[in-house]
Design brief:
The chain has 298 residues and is of the alpha/beta class. The protein contains 12 helices and 5 strands. 43% of the residues lie in helices and 12% in strands. It holds the Pfam family HTH_21.
Length: 298
């Protein structure tokens, strides 16, 4: 409008006259002009140009997702692998954007709603202070429902013991604890685990007299989770969820032997290759080796 020429005077209207007629401040006009000039062209990234282009980063993401033995890993695991294993400095938001644009994000999402939050802490600062145990049922074709019991270290989320069986009795629930004691302490004799606590829910196996007396024999203190708050046994619950997502959901097992072989392979792979956020994206085995090498007594 300001560049148009008046028919009467033959001169341009000018910015000052147009702004006065429209009752707008000239500063508003100049600010709008400057903002339009400074807008980033469509399709271009603001800020300094990254050293590695999106195409190369996306190729690395695809290569990792194809090579990893786990299914449904999210952008944080991919970013942690690129940064801590490959030594590539790339923003986590950038990895998230590339995976979202190419439909590579993890399909596993938490349920909607507002669950009751647990205000306490269940992560320890040293090993062999608190273990968690829990059981899960899996269906097989020949033998019907079977049980998987596990024992998980709260410190580094390592699976220290497991057991696959047909019936989930109090005797079978003790098997992963026995395996864990032999693995960590080298024995399952009396008072071998003095100072250790075991977190568990209120299942009939864990409340049985035989189970509690056996824990007392080993020197283990029982620590029951709060009623209706599974977060208090969250380490074992999270391990069971990971196990189900990786080797149970969408798969059919013929018998208990096939299931046992799958769990054995998964536990070995999980402990050596599953990167945990609370471990600063190190695997459970890597964190334990660092602890053992530091010379700090548990």
């Amino acid at each position: 409008m300001s560049q148009m020429v008046s028919e009467e005077t033959g001169r341009r209207y000018g910015i000052e006259r147009v702004c006065r007629v429209w009752e707008k401040a000239r500063s508003t006009f100049y600010n709008r002009c400057n903002s339009e000039k400074s807008e980033t062209p469509s399709g271009m990234r603001r800020g300094p140009k990254p050293l590695i282009c999106d195409e190369i980063v996306f190729a690395m993401v695809q290569a990792y997702l194809e090579a990893t033995p786990f299914a449904g890993e999210g952008h944080r695991k991919v970013w942690a692998y690129l940064k801590f294993v490959e030594g590539i400095k790339v923003g986590r938001g950038r990895v998230l954007r590339l995976m979202r644009e190419n439909n590579l994000l993890s399909p596993h999402r938490s349920r909607a709603g507002q669950p009751k939050q647990h205000d306490g802490k269940i992560v320890t600062m040293a090993p062999n202070l608190l273990w968690g145990t829990d059981g899960a049922r899996v269906f097989t074709v020949d033998q019907g429902w079977c049980w998987i019991f596990s024992a998980v270290e709260h410190w580094n989320a390592e699976c220290v013991g497991w057991h696959v069986c047909k019936y989930g009795t109090r005797f079978q629930a003790l098997e992963p604890i026995t395996m864990a004691l032999n693995y960590i302490y080298g024995s399952s004799k009396s008072d071998i685990a003095r100072g250790l606590s075991l977190r568990m829910d209120h299942g009939s196996q864990y409340r049985s007299e035989h189970f509690l007396k056996q824990l007392k024999f080993w020197g283990i203190k029982p620590s029951f989770a709060f009623v209706s708050e599974p977060q208090t046994n969250g380490v074992a619950e999270r391990f069971n969820r990971t196990l189900k997502e990786q080797i149970i959901y969408g798969r059919v097992y013929r018998n208990i032997d096939d299931l046992r072989d799958a769990v054995r392979t998964f536990v070995a792979t999980y402990n050596s290759r599953w990167r945990v956020a609370k471990n600063r994206f190190r695997t459970p085995e890597e964190l334990r080796k660092e602890w053992d090498g530091s010379g700090i007594a548990a």
